[in-house]
Amino acid sequence: MEKAPLFSDSMRALVRIAGAVAGAPIAFTRRVMVEAIDVAPVISVEEVLLQSYLFAGFPRALNAMRVWRDVSGQHAPSVDQAIDDSAAADTARLGEQICRMVYGHKYDALRQSVSRLHPALDAWMMTDGYGKVLSRPGLSLVERELCIVAACAASEQIPQLKSHLRGARNSGASIEDLAQTLSALTDIVTREALTAAREELNRIKES
Questions:
Q1: How would you class 67 by CB atoms within 10 Å of its CB: exposed for 0-12, middle for 13-18, buried for 19 or more?
Q2: Greatest C-alpha distance within the chain
Q3: Whether pLDDT at 144 is above 70
Q4: I want to staple 61 with a disulfide (CB 3.0 to 4.6 A). Which of 31, 53, 88, 113 is the partner?
């Protein structure tokens, strides 16, 4: 049975920010953030920006957060759970749980594949990616996955896009949610990249 769509004006604003941070010039990203100020919750925007370091790199994440501080007038919190690093083992276990939710029956194959690239990447994926970042409050897992889809599409990272299209589905997104996520990026990604992303979505829809 197909899942009910959850896409909203707020979700559209968030995926546009995720896509812009990953693939657009900073001036365009600023404009997208201005559009989002009265639409998306502040904490949700900031969580999208924080997780963007995983998918767009620290330079883009830092520059995007700098722009957000300027356009929103919001100050950074004085404390954050990321400062407490006393439960590394628990963080790794949480990361594994969330990663299993996202990848489903392909979880073991993912771990083996990434370990073959480098075991450090596998460890960081669990602790930093899924354990420390994607488990944070402020955004649900499905909201995070839709934003990851946007980031991967905007940066034309097709292997990761394939994985996170399915991950979004496993997390509760409908085909319509994914279609609207891609449609929200029409002025951010190239026509070729958008076509490739939609082709991947069609493969999932037909499988």
A1: buried
A2: 48
A3: yes
A4: 53
